[in-house]
Design brief:
- This protein is an alpha/beta fold.
- Helices cover 33% and strands 19% of the residues.
- The chain starts with 6 loop residues before the first strand and ends with a helix.
Length: 177
């Protein structure tokens, strides 16, 4: 009997629009075989996660809040925000995923750097597929063109393809068995 398809909840946090998040559904489905749906409710900017010493927003606090939004039938959640994100060991992150809580967050803040509308849309799609890949169990990839490569800058996103390399595709197939 085939397993029911996993469903990813996409949640706008702050100013990203549901229309922007809707544009993530196709690439996530095409690359990962993962259905996604945009939340009917958008959340306010994650002021609760602000760290005044850093002037940034802590990913873990946001992901904890997102994990509480999952409803029956929804397997995992990805929040999209426009605030500058951090984890304690890095100056900043473009996004972060936690497999245990089945939650991830990514930010447009740094992806906007030097990007026109089309380039920003592609960067967002690349990072959304990347974070959703982590939620499905994929690790970072050493192939700089693979969507699962660790992006340290928006330019890394530009170099990546919007697809998995053969190794990561094989790994995803194993995870889905």
């Amino acid at each position: 009997m085939p397993q029911p398809q996993k469903l990813l909840l996409l949640v706008p946090l702050g100013s990203p629009t549901p229309v922007l998040l809707k544009e993530l559904e196709g690439p996530i489905s095409l690359q990962l075989g993962l259905a996604s749906v945009v939340s009917k409710a958008s959340l306010p900017a994650p002021t609760y996660a602000f760290n005044k010493d850093r002037g940034q927003y802590h990913c873990n606090a946001i992901m904890r809040r997102l994990a509480g939004l999952l409803e029956p039938g929804q397997s995992m959640v990805l929040g999209v925000t426009d605030v500058d994100l951090f984890v304690p060991d890095s100056p900043f992150v473009l996004g972060e995923a936690d497999r245990e809580s089945k939650s991830a967050v990514l930010s447009l803040f740094r992806l906007r750097q030097g990007a026109d509308g089309e380039q920003l849309r592609r960067r967002l799609q690349v990072e959304a597929v990347h974070q959703a890949g982590h939620l499905l169990g994929l690790s970072y990839c050493e192939d700089a063109r693979c969507v699962m490569f660790f992006s340290q800058t928006p330019q890394d996103c530009d170099r990546k393809q919007l697809s998995l390399c053969n190794n990561c595709r094989n790994e995803l197939n194993k995870l889905n068995r």
